[in-house]
Automatic annotation (TrEMBL):
InterPro entries: HTH-type_LysR_regulators (IPR050950), LysR_HTH_N (IPR000847), LysR_subst-bd (IPR005119), WH-like_DNA-bd_sf (IPR036388), WH_DNA-bd_sf (IPR036390). This is LysR family transcriptional regulator. Belongs to the LysR transcriptional regulatory family. Residues 17-74 form the HTH lysR-type domain. Keywords: DNA-binding, Transcription, Transcription regulation. Pfam families: HTH_1, LysR_substrate. It comes from the Bacteria. One of its GO terms (cellular component) is cytosol. Coiled coil: none annotated. PANTHER family: HTH-TYPE TRANSCRIPTIONAL REGULATOR YBHD, NITROGEN ASSIMILATION TRANSCRIPTIONAL ACTIVATOR-RELATED. GO terms for molecular function: DNA binding; DNA-binding transcription factor activity.
Amino acid sequence: MATEPRIPTIRQIRSRLRVRHLDLLLALDVTRSVHKAATQLGMTQPAASKLLVELETTFGVPLFIRSRRGISPTVYGQALVHKAAVLLADLDGARSELDAMTRGASGRVRVGVLQAVLPVLIPRALTQLREQSAGVTVMLQEGSYDALLNSLARGELDCVIGRLMVGKGQAAFQTEVLYDEPIHIVARVGHPLVRSSRVNAATLARQSWILPPPQAPLRERIDAYFAEQNLSLMDPVVESVSLLANEVLLRHSDVLAAMPRGVALHYARLGVLAILKFQPGWTLPPVGVVTRSDAEISPSLHVFLQAVRAEAAALDQSDGRGK
């Protein structure tokens, strides 16, 4: 009868574990070879093998299965690889924050952002942050929601700000709603429908559109709206979620597009695009902040989030018309 492995105590693990062990663990997971991992870390294969034995002894469980084709992680190894990646990313973040402090900054925040918050919320929050805490440096990383959440889970980001998607790893993250934001229909300045008060669903169905890809939440809402009206749109001129590309196409043709209120008003204030008077009431999930459940909020992140909350409240209260 097999006996369950006995995991050493926390004190024993802390007294034995070194950062080099974690570096080796990640290198082994990537290369699936002790020889290749040793080369990647600039050490000999015997030294890498010794470190691996120390690592498995430290945790009291087999972390990798050896075979002629190389090595592969056990269930224990897979769990430890994930934790090691987070620990090393947190350590890198701490190093970067200390480096920023030595250069006169008081902290560094790594923020994942979605397009919905880039034109308005983030610039306003950064302006307030600079006025109140000029020493905090903010690193912005744009990407898809899933990609940013993965980076957050690995400890490579401190938070993600954008439209909250339900059911995306809720146990691993904490979410905070900032505001709800309706969708506006926009067109070029001077488009025939901009001044019209007779626009309805049938009018919109006859127009050329820039639409999000079919699986995007907004596209699903748009398609459902016209289906409810027993109408169907023509094939879109282009399917795109790129704000820059959409803005250029809108300015040079008579197509329509749907944009979040903040983005639409941003372009309208610049005189680049115009908002149609008729709005079909399309909604999307609220805009919010996502942080890791197992990570403490650093002072720098706390200051940044205070600025984000203040500007989000101002946007919500003013209905996007500005202070």
